[in-house]
Design a protein that fits this description.
Chain A folds into two domains: 17-243, 2-enoyl-CoA Hydratase, Chain A, domain 1; 262-507, 2-enoyl-CoA Hydratase, Chain A, domain 1 (Alpha-Beta Complex), CATH 3.90.226. By secondary structure, chain A is α/β, with parallel strands linked by helices. Chain A is built from 23 helices and 21 strands. In chain A, the strands form five sheets. An eight-stranded mixed sheet of chain A has the order 12-13-14-15-16-17-18-21, with helices on both faces. Chain A has a six-stranded mixed sheet with strand order 1-2-4-6-8-11, sandwiched between helices. In chain A, helix 6 (180-187) runs antiparallel to helix 21. The longest helix of chain A has 25 residues, at 104-128. Chain B has 474 residues and is mainly alpha-helical. Chain B has one domain (18-439): Ribonucleotide Reductase, subunit A (Orthogonal Bundle), CATH 1.10.620.20. Chain B has twelve helices and four strands; from the N terminus they run H-H-E-E-H-H-H-H-H-H-H-E-E-H-H-H. Chain B has helices spanning 5-11, 22-42, 110-130, 141-168, 170-180, 204-225, 231-268, 282-298, 306-313, 356-381, 416-426, 430-439; strands at 51-56, 67-72, 334-341, 344-351. In chain B, the strands form two sheets. A two-stranded antiparallel ribbon of chain B has the order 1-2. In chain B, strands 3-4 form a two-stranded antiparallel ribbon. In chain B, a hairpin with a 2-residue loop joins strand 3 (334-341) and strand 4. In chain B, 46% of the residues are buried. Classes of the chains: A alpha/beta (559), B mainly alpha (474). The A-B interface holds A 40, 158-161, 170, 201-203, 221-224, 546-551 and B 95, 111, 115, 179, 182-183, 188-191, 193, 306, 309-310, 313-314, 330-331, 351-354, 404. Bound molecules: fe (ii) ion (FE2) (2 copies). One fe (ii) ion (FE2) binds next to helix 6 and helix 7 of chain B.
Amino acid sequence: MESPPTHATPVDFETDPSRYRHWRVSYDGPIATLAMAVDPEGGLRSGYELKLNSYDLGVDIELADVVRRMRFEHPEVRVVVLTSGLDNVFCAGANIHMLAASTHAWKVNFCKFTNETRCEIEDAEAYSGQVYIAAVNGPCAGGGYELALACREIYLQDDGSSAVSLPEVPLLGVLPGTGGLTRLVDKRKVRRDRADIFSTTAEGIRGKKAVEWRLVDGVYPRSRFREAIAGRSAALAAELARALPAAERRGIHLGPLLPELSAGRRRYRHVELSWDDNARLARLTIHGPTAEDVALLGRGAEAAHAAGDQLWALRAFRELDDAILHLRVNLPGVGVVLVRAVGDAAQALAHDHALTELRGDWFINEVIRHMARALRRVDLSSRTFFALGDAGTAFVGALFELALAADRFYALDDEDAPVQVGLSPLNFGALPMTHGVTRLRAHLHGEPEQLSRLGEAAQLLSVGDADEAGLVTVRLDGIDWDDDTRVAIEERLSLSPDALSGMEANLRFPGAENEDSKIFARLSAWQNWIFIRPNATGAHGALTLYGKPERPHFDWNRV
Amino acid sequence: MLSNNVDLNAKIPNNVGLADDPKLLRALEKWLPSYLEWWHDMGPTDFEDKPVYLRTAVSVENDGWAHYEHVRMPDYRWGIFLNPREQASTIRCGDDAGKPAWSEVPGEHRNALRRIIVTQADTEPASVEQQRLLGHIAPSLYDMRNLFQVNVEEGRHLWAMVYLLHKYFGRDGRDEADALLERRSGDPDKPRILGAFNQPCDHWLSFFAFTMFTDRDGKYQLAALSQSGFDPLARSTEFMLTEEAHHLFVGETGLDRIIKRSAELQRLDPNGDVRNQGGIDFDLIQRTINYWFTYSLDLFGGEISSNAADFFATGLKGRYREDRLPEHRALDQSYRLPVVDGGRLVERDVPLRNAMNEVLRDSYITDCERALRKWNRTLEEAGSPTRLSLPSRRFHRHQGIYADHRFNPEGELVSQSAWDRDHGRWLLRPEDNDYLLSIMKPVYEPGKFANWIAPPNKGIEGQPVEFEYVKLHD
Ligand SMILES: [Fe+2]
Ligand SMILES: [Fe+2]
C-alpha cells in the first residue's frame, strides 16, 4: 500500500555536528577528512541495519549538512578527503533492505535527495574551490561508488580485494540511479562499451584495470595508501590555494532554524508553510527583505559576515529549502502549493543590487550559490506550484525566481492594489537551473525577442508591463481574482498526480540537457519506472527477493 | 612443448586429456614457470634438495592416487585429476536440482563460480607460505615429511583450481591464475583473501592446530563444492578430498600426540607442572584450540547470507553430503539461530537457504567435537584429570553476526571491559610464542622425537617410525 505516511514521524532535515551518528569530520588547515562510519543501529526507520557503511536518508541528511557547513563554516578548506572510517569496507551503497521495504514515494524522494547532495559536492568544487577526493580504502559498491563519482578524483586501495562496482543491474534488477551511469560516461568519460561491462559485473573491477578504464584515478598499495592520499591532497590544496584570493577566510556558524510548529503549519522567521491535508493544498509564503536588511548590506562585507546566518538572503533561503524538503517527504498528500513572496518591491530590488555589489566576497558568493540550490530544489519538486502575485506581494529579483520556477504565475492587475514585479541583477545568471540556464531564458525559450528586449536591465514592472513582457501566465483584475484562481486550483487538484508530476518535470526545463539534468531527468525517470516494474519490486522481483531464499523470476518481454 | 603423451603424463599426470587440448596445454605451460618460481620463493625452499618420502597421485585408479617414493620437492609431479563418475552427473541442489549438471560454465553463473574457485584456490598456496619455515624446527623426520606432504598437496590443489580457471574462464581465468601467485600470506599490501590464511603459523603447535581446524574448514568447503552443479568443479574437489583427509590426520594426530606427551610429563613432574618438564601445558593447548577453531569458523562466512542462498539456489554449492539428504530445494524451511537483539541473545528463525553457511558450520563443529572426545579419551587413558573443550561458536569471531559483540568461551555475552580483562586467559598471547619457540629445537635423527610430542603409533605406508622419511644427508 502506498498510503501517504503523513502522520508517521516526520523526517527532520536539520542536523548539526553534535548530532552526527554516521560521519566523522576532522580538520587540518586546508584539508578536511570526512570519514564515513555508519552506525548500523542508527537507521532513520526501523526494520533494517545499516551494515557495511550502507546508508539511508538519515545518513545522507548528515552528509548534506557536512557539505553545506564545509562551505559556510570552513571556507579555509580546499580539499575534502572522503574516506571510510571502517576497516573492511568503503561504502556498500544504499541499504537494500531499506529500499526493498520502502514505498515507491520514499524511494523516489530518497534518490532525489541523495542526487541533490552529490550535485552539491560538485557545486562546491565548481563554485567554492572546495574539492572532494575519494580515498576508497575498501570495497566500494553501488551507491558507494556513485558517491566517489561525485568527487573530482578517486583513489583506490590496491589490496587484491578492494574493487569499485555497480552491482545494481546484475544483483538487484535496478539502476545505479544516484548519478552512477551518467557520471560514468559523461563525467569520467569511461568508454560506453566498457561501462556496459562494468555495470553488469557484480564483483566490479579493481587494481590497474580500474585505472586503465578510468574508473579511478590511481591505485596505491595498502601500506602506502594513507601517505599517498596525504601527498595528493596536500599538492591539490597548494594548487587550489594559488588560484584563490589569499584573503583570510573565517567561517560563519549555521545555527538551527527552529521553526515554530503547530498543526498544519511551520512558521520560520521569513517563511511560512501551512497546509490542509484534506484539501491537498499548501501555502508557502516568503517575506522579502526590509530596509534594514538592505542597509546592512550597504555597510559592506564585514557587516554581512557579522550578521552571519542571520543575513536575510541566507536565512530566508535556508528556511525555504527546509520547507520544500518537509513538503516533499512529510506531506506527500499535498498536490498544489500556492507561493507568495510578500514585502516591498523597491527594497527587494535594492537588496539584490547590494548583494550583487558584494559578490566578490567569499561569504556573499556562498549565500548566492545557496539561494541557487534552494531554488533548484523547487524546480525538482514533484508538486504543482502556482505563484500568486496578489496584493502585498513583491516578486522581485531572487524572489521573482519563485514565480519563474512555478508552473503558473497569476498576477493581480488592480488599480486599488497595485502590484509590482521586477528583475534584479540576480535574474541574469547567478541563480541557474539544474540544466545550466537562467529561469528567464527557460521561460522565454520560444520568445527570444522578448528575452533580448528585457536585456539585462534591472527594473520594476507593473503587472501590465510584466504581462506584455511575457512574464505573467494569467493577469486578473480584482473582480475575477478570487473565482478564477479558485477554479484553477480546483481543476489542478482533480488531475492525476502522476501525470502532473511527469508533465511538470517535462515542461519546466526547456532547452538543452546537461550532465546534472540528465541525472534528474533521464536516469531518475528510468529508475523510477524500473522501481515500479514487477521485475524489480513485484513478488518475484530481484529487489524484493534480494537476501531472500528464492531467486527472482523475470518477465522476459522487453517493453 | 612436450613432445608426446607419455612425456606429458610423466610431467603433469592428468586424466583430463591435456595432451589433446593444445590451447590449454600452452596456457598451463606458460603458468608453470611462474608457479615453480613461486614455489622456490615461498615454499619450503631450504629443503629443496632433500629427497622426501612423498605420495604422488599419478592416476585416479585405485593403485594410482597414492604412489610413494623419495623425491625432491621441486621435482614433484603436480597432476590434474577429476574423479570419474559412473553415470551422468546432475545438479544436486537448488531450483534446478535433478537436471543435468553443467559441463561448461553457464554464463549467468560465470562470475559467481569464478569467485568461488578463486577463493578456494587462494587458500592452497597461502598455507604453504604460512608453513614455509617450519622444517627448521621439525620435531622429527616423520613430522617433517608430513609437513612437506601437506605442502606439495596444497600445491597440487592450486594446480587443480588453476586448471579450472584456465580451462573454463578465458582471459579472466588466466589473470586470476596469475594473481594467485602474486598475493602473499600476511602481506599488508597483497594479503591472501581470507583472514585465517594471513595469520602467522610460526611453530608446530600452530601447524597442527591449523591442519586440524583450518584444513578441516577446507574439507567442508570442498565437500560442499563437490556437490556443485558445475561438473568439473564437483569432480575436481571430490578428488582433492582424498588428499585432504591426510592433512586432517596430520593435525588431529599431531595434537593428540602432544596431548598424550603432556599428560605423561604432567604425571612425571612432582608438581604436575608440564612446562617444568619442557612440555606444552594444557592451558596453552586449550588457548590454541580456542584461537584456531574460532578463526576457522570465520571461514564459513556469514550466518545469514544472501550469497549462500544464491549459491545453493543456483546449484553452485550444496550442503555436506547433499546427495544423501532426502530433499534438495530447502525452500519454505527455516533455521533457528541465536542472534543478539537489544543486548540479549534471542532465537530467530531465518530461511534455510540463507543459513547454508551455518548448516555447513554445524557439520564442521560436529566433526571437531568428535576429535575433542578422542583427545579427552587420550587424557583419560593417560590418567590425566584434565579435559579439553571447544569454545562456543560465538566466541572470538571476526565475521558474521557475532563479530560485533563480545562473548566468553561459553558463548555468553560479556562486556567489553570483561573481555579486555579476560581474553588473555582464553586466547594465545605473544609470550606463548616465545615459550613455544624456545622448546622447539629440530630433531633430525630418524626415529627420534622432540620432548614435547609423543611418537606416532605407526609410520607412513607400512614403513617403521624410524624410517628415514627425509634424507637430510645424502
Ligand atoms: Fe588443500
Ligand atoms: Fe589441506
